[in-house]
Amino acid sequence: MNTKRTVPAVFQKLIDVIRPYGKAVVAFSGGVDSSLLAYAAAEALGCENVICVTARALSFPERELKESVIFCERHGLRHEILDFDELGIEGFAQNPPDRCYLCKRALLTKFKAFAEREGIETVLEGSNTDDHGDYRPGMRAVRELGILSPLTEAGLTKEDVRSILKELDLAVWDKPPLACLATRIPYGEEVTAKKLEMVDRAEQYLFDKGYEQVRVRIHGTRNYTARIETLPENLTSLAEEPLRGDIYKYFKSLGFSWVALDLTGYQMGSMNEALKDLE
């Protein structure tokens, strides 16, 4: 990393937060937050003192894993990929409201163990100040395990993160929000490898058609319904021929019995709306 160039003042604040750590392992998903965190860590500590760690898991889209590899290669970052079996976590498959906590704790524990083997005390994760406003049980695991959140400490919002990435001319600045594939399954409905694969392939199909801001929610226990969420301005084009028929045919081949288009449009964390029904 070239630390001699002029950097945005708010980015410099983030670098100053990270610099005292000396060495760090970065929990790296390849999303906008962890990308800025990894880049800033390399600026602050030097690439030789930073290791990015990514999980290879059923609930992590294959395209995101590939993009995480590309980012690290492009910026000279050491990158380790660790296999992670989230379905093996006790209680995870039953999909309780605190599923994210169960997964995050197991994952970060694995990352901490990796850091210890490398002789590194500090593990960083990429939550920003906006992440504290939604239902995010995984944040409890972050606190319990002593994982550090430099973006939050520096007071950065999601808008700040994208603005810094854009100013630094990093291509990920406008990357759509990322969430694990298990978030596509309603709480209380079992998480299975089959469902995760169906969602991953269905969303990849829509991404390949040019719809970047999209979610495919899966409903049902035996006969599955795909509920497509996309930006309101894209609803009409998805329903037009021949794309409508092509989507239906492909989704049927994946195992969906029905395919629906959510007229509300894309909503981050939309599955959380059903939590009140589980209370």
Strand order in the largest sheet: 3-2-1-4
Overall helicity: 25-40%
Number of domains: 2
Main beta sheet: 4 strands, parallel
The oligomerization state is single chain
Any overview of this molecule?
With 279 residues, the protein is α/β, with parallel strands linked by helices. The chain folds into two domains: 9-174, HUPs (Rossmann fold, 3-Layer(aba) Sandwich), CATH 3.40.50; 181-278, Alpha-Beta Plaits (2-Layer Sandwich). 39% of the residues lie in helices and 14% in strands. The chain is built from ten helices and seven strands. It has helices spanning 9-18, 32-45, 62-74, 99-117, 138-144, 150-153, 158-167, 193-208, 235-239, 243-254; strands at residues 24-27, 50-56, 78-83, 123-124, 214-219, 224-230, 256-261. The strands form two sheets. Strands 3-2-1-4 form a four-stranded parallel β-sheet, with helices on both faces. The chain has a three-stranded mixed β-sheet with strand order 5-6-7. Helix 4 (99-117) runs parallel beside helix 5 (138-144). The chain is globular and about 55 Å long. It starts with 8 loop residues before the first helix and ends in an 18-residue tail after the last strand. The mean pLDDT is 92.
